[in-house]
Amino acid sequence: MGEKQPVSFIERLAGSEGFCALFREGMSLVEEAAAYLDGDGRFDAKALPRTEALAYAAESMRLTTRLMQIASWLLLQRAVNQGELTRHQAASNRHRVKLREQELASAPDLFQRLPLRLRELSLQSLRLQARIIHLDRLIHALEPALAAPAPTSSPVEAQIARLRAAFAQ
Description:
Helicase, Ruva Protein, domain 3; mainly alpha
């Protein structure tokens, strides 16, 4: 009987329909935000009083940064899934996306005075960011276990082999 290898949660996750849905959701949110900020958002921002206009600028910059981190992470995971990178390469400092939890840039009362679409996009991105950070932590918590070589024999067999080698001399 051949030894069974453990099922890799990471590999299963990357190829799952759940990841594909998360990828589509994330990239769709990036596109929606870009379309809004480059279109109607410009008009919305110009119509705001000074304090709200400054808050709009801060929220839109934070939204853009958050979504770029999300998109980078999703693209990196997809590259691993498609075999363009190994899981080890993706986890290296060169490729690894540093996800940072970001809160809203504005106080709650000021945030409520911003255009509805900006608020919706910001809140959606925060929820997506939280899910991705959770997933990233799960993936990276499991990596050390996956990197450790699977024992080929039991620890007892290894000790017996050492004893035999010692007495054979």
